[in-house]
Write a structure and sequence with these properties.
2 domains, 3 strands, 6 helices, single chain, about 110 residues, three-stranded antiparallel beta sheet, mainly alpha
């Protein structure tokens, strides 16, 4: 897993705890020698700052359209990728149906 890119690691729909674990391993905040099962509890019980940080990172990646999230709390890499030219305001306007298209030109 260490040599793979994050887009490959999260290519398929992945439960939130596994996605957080994979992200944590990828960025190096979870010990390389710890299995998912040995750390699973930190993603289910409040009070673990590293787990909270990883959850917030996943949610930030959804907000930036890097990841997709479904109703079953699973994540996967957005195959269409994010549009780096879109601001948060643009994304919110698109989601609300106020504008179509992408980039600053579409919002203006």
């Amino acid at each position: 897993m260490e040599s793979a890119e994050l887009r490959e690691i999260l290519a398929d729909w992945t439960d939130f705890d596994v996605a957080a674990y994979r992200l944590g391993k990828f960025i190096g905040v979870l010990p390389a020698d710890r299995s998912f099962l040995s750390l699973k509890g930190i993603f289910w019980i409040e009070g673990y700052p590293v787990a909270k940080m990883l959850d917030e990172m996943l949610e930030s990646m959804v907000a930036a359209e890097v990841l997709l999230k479904d109703d079953d709390l699973r994540y996967r890499w957005n195959p269409d990728g994010p549009d780096p030219d879109l601001s948060l305001e643009d994304i919110e306007a698109i989601e609300a149906g106020r504008i179509g298209g992408a980039g600053p030109e579409a919002a203006g």
